[in-house]
Write a structure and sequence with these properties.
215 residues; mainly alpha; 72% helix; transcription
Length: 215
């Protein structure tokens, strides 16, 4: 159902989501992103992402591809590695908390405080020198859960192959990012992004309907 005052292309996206027509959803989302309207696409997708794996998958792809999370983190951090780590942690927290997104809200405004909290966690750990084995951030926690294999076989099986291969090579086989990139014939930056998205989708599967409150 379209929202009063919503642009026609946004209304079409909502109608396609209502119908479960994800081929059309993908096409319309790509058009909106190409038109510089990624934020508007995210607003609509976020309303459907809790409990709808395909909508969640497209949401993560658009959000990560837009660079919004990295830009938010980059406002507060200078170190590139820190930005990468915090962005991955934030992406997982967003997926775990998507059930608390309020319909009609601006998605990126909802995302920003989550990124802030992940940055604050990172800075506190740096300041206090907290060992990794004492407190694990979301990215580290998901990597450990995946490596344990005990609860994630079904979640891994549901991942698109594009994400499943690098996640398995990194988190189960223990390859470095560079080794994963070489094995798959992809760039290191590409596999980092695909692993981040894959871990986020595994987190969504482990959350059942991706519910929960923002942390």
């Amino acid at each position: 159902m379209s929202v009063l005052g919503e642009k026609p292309d946004h209304a079409e996206l909502r109608q396609a989501l209502d119908a479960g027509d994800f081929r059309t959803v993908g096409g319309l989302t790509s058009e909106l992103v190409a038109e510089g309207a990624a934020d508007q696409a995210l607003d609509v997708l976020a309303e459907y992402a809790a409990g709808n794996r395909r909508a969640l998958e497209i949401l993560i792809e658009v959000l990560d591809g837009s660079g919004s999370v990295r830009r938010f983190a980059g406002r507060m951090l200078l170190d590139q590695t820190a930005i990468d780590d915090v962005s991955q942690d934030a992406l997982i927290s967003i997926v775990e908390s998507i059930g608390s997104f309020r319909h009609g809200a601006k998605f990126t405004s909802w995302v920003y405080p989550i990124v802030q909290r992940r940055v604050a966690d990172y800075l506190r750990r740096q300041r206090e020198g907290v060992p990794l084995d004492e407190e694990m951030l979301p990215g580290e926690r998901m990597s450990s859960i995946i490596a344990a294999r005990t609860t994630v076989q079904q979640a891994l099986a549901q991942l698109p192959e594009l994400y499943r291969e690098p996640v398995v090579l990194r988190d189960i086989d223990g390859l470095s990012y560079a080794e994963v990139a070489e094995a798959l014939g992809r760039s290191v930056g590409t596999v980092k992004s695909q692993i981040s998205r894959g871990r986020a989708l595994v987190a969504g599967s482990l959350c059942g309907e991706a519910g929960g409150s923002a942390r």
